[in-house]
Amino acid sequence: MLSSHARRARPLLIAAVLLALPATTVVPVATAAANVGDTAKRPADERPDQPYPDIDVRGEKRTAPTARQLRAARELDGAGVRWGRFGTPRLVSPQGKGALTAASDADPGTVALNHVRDHADLYGLSAAELSALEVVKSYRTKHNGLRHVFIGQADPSGVPVNGGRLSVAVDKHGRIVTVAGSLVPEVPGAHTSDAARLDRKAAIDRAAASVGTVDPSGTVTAARVTFPLAGDGARPAWRTTLTAGNGHVYDTVVDAGNGEILLRNDLTHNEGPQGRVFTGQNPNAGGAAVVPFAGLGRSWVDGRVTTGNNAEVSQNLDGGEALGYQPQTPAAGDPAYQHFNYTFTDAFRTSGGTDLTTDRDPVVTQAFYL
Fold first, then answer.
1. Are strands 288-292 and 274-278 parallel, antiparallel or unpaired?
2. Per-residue pLDDT tens for 145-203?
3. For residue 49, with 0-12 CB atoms within 10 Å meaning exposed, 13-18 middle and 19 or more buried, which class applies?
4. How far apart are CA 60 and CA 297, in angstroms?
């Protein structure tokens, strides 16, 4: 949580995003301003202690898309593509129109799978890799009627590919609005008897030791995965979750061959209210990320909308005093409660200034963050 004064002192980031949607209103909450200077009520540091940092052995290594993929991206009708670590799309979004596909009466899972399979050149997957894709999760957000379909990827032996997942947003008319995530081309089957020496217990022990823990408390999980190395093949691995001695929950991928920690994320550090926002100065350079909407034990968000301890942000197109439109997350108890994770598509600019609604969720969220 930030005080009213601290929130205003933050540099005005992403002016292009805020200008992309007119009439975004930020209303300060007076009670927060009254607390500034009261040492007993000062908000906690925005960067909580994280004794065991996140790890990714791949660093910044990336694979470039092929010429065929780039050509397929150019041939998409009214869509923009941003590329991910593995040389495949990490975001496909409409440009100048409301959706990527036409309306459909088919099941949303079928709509999502057919879209990926119909664009094999774009995603760079073989026929066998495409046929192995499956829907692993699906849920609907009531406030906007979107069905979020998650597609999972497996290696040739059926082991899930770590990070190989797409999130496809399908609207109530059966149209695909966005596709986000990553798929990984040419993932080999890495779990051979020679390569995967660590058993489940050994992998858990190694993950626990990496965060200073001998006997993890609570629920511990471990599942076999194939860990792609961005152009250098893949490693057989175990993906574990456990609670460390410091009380934090860690999602850790352990090499099943040599016990190396390939990937580690502190889930406790990242849980709670959050939003997808631009944190750099130039949104055209990318950089949108999901960040906490909280300090240490203190939330910026009061409920399901962009109203918090020191600001109430809405889109008000008529210029009146009444509170305008606010993004609304699912209710408490839903995994997406207080998760303002919307994708900015730049619809206002690409529509020539006529589309005032497509990006109102991400833009109001950005203003709330600022």
1. antiparallel
2. 889 999 999 999 999 999 999 999 999 999 999 998 899 998 887 666 667 789 999 99
3. exposed
4. 31
Q: Quote the CA–CA distance of 277 and 342 in Å, as a whole number.
A: 8
Alpha-helical segments (H) within 20-126: 30-35, 67-74, 108-118, 120-123
Residue 100 backbone phi and psi in degrees, to 5: -85, -30
Q: Would you give the DSSP letter of residue 110?
A: H
E-assigned strands of 128-159? 134-141, 146-154
Token look-up 């529509």 returns: 351
- Bigger pLDDT: 331 or 71? 71
For residues 30 and 319, the answer to whether their CB atoms sit within 8 Å is: no
- Kindly report each contact of residues 255-260 with a partner whose C-beta sits within 8 Å and lies 24 or more positions away, as own/partner: 255/198, 255/227, 256/191, 256/195, 256/196, 256/197, 256/198, 256/203, 256/224, 257/195, 257/196, 257/197, 257/198, 258/197, 259/198, 259/202, 259/203, 259/206, 260/57
- Total-model pTM: 0.62
Distance CA 64, CA 62 (A): 7
Residue 128, classified by CB atoms within 10 Å of its CB into exposed (0-12), middle (13-18) or buried (19+), is exposed
- Which three-class secondary structure state does DSSP give residue 134? strand
- Does residue 78 contact residue 95 with C-beta atoms inside 8 Å? yes
Q: What are phi and psi of 329, to 5 degrees?
A: -85, 170
The three-state DSSP-derived secondary structure of 308-344 is: ECCEEEEECCCCCCCCCECCECCCCCCCCCCEECCCC
CB of 236 within 8 A of CB of 257? yes
CA distance 88 to 209: 34
Kindly tell me if the per-residue pLDDT of 10 is higher than 60: no
